[in-house]
Amino acid sequence: MRKIIVLTFVTLDGIIQSPGAPEEDASGGFKYGGWMAPYDDHSAGAVMQKLLQPSDLLLGRKTFDIWEQYWPKHASFWPGINEVTKYVFSNTRDRSGWENCVFVKSIDEIKKLKSTNGSDIKVWGSSELIQLLLKHDLVDEFWLMIHPLILGKGKKLFTEEIPAAAFTLEENVTTSKGVIIAHYKRSGEVITGRVGPE
To answer: Going by C-beta distance under 8 Å and a sequence separation of 6 or more, which residues neighbour residue 167?
Structure first.
């Protein structure tokens, strides 16, 4: 069985909308697009090189629309991006000129994909797809790049509709600009108890 790994840039208040550039996603009047740019540094870049190792990808349609225009022209920055299989969750598209793209239309298709043999499947961006994966308890791991910002309004990583789950911190790095990069693996159900003396 393959693991689904969500890799996302997130603020302290859980916003994941449009981290890379103002034009990525201005929906809902979001005015802080490109918020992660001032926090880039050498230590973050070293971790990113690890996270960009070739692996199959699962993308939402809006993220894919951006990526198919950008990454084929910048493949030297992300070796293997053209060669890996890019699974695209979409009800409105079924083909692309970008090589190695496969379109899926249902959560059942994603479940079948997860049950096959192959590389881990990484999810970048794709806020609506992440919500769907969480709702169906299909996320095995997170790589969270937590930025020291509060933005208030915007698309959130977590909503009230997702089921409870526990994760274990596997590794973490804090960059010189205060970004916490944390790798979490699913560890089971939530365990409760009492803190303090009886």
So the answer is: 142, 184, 185, 186, 187
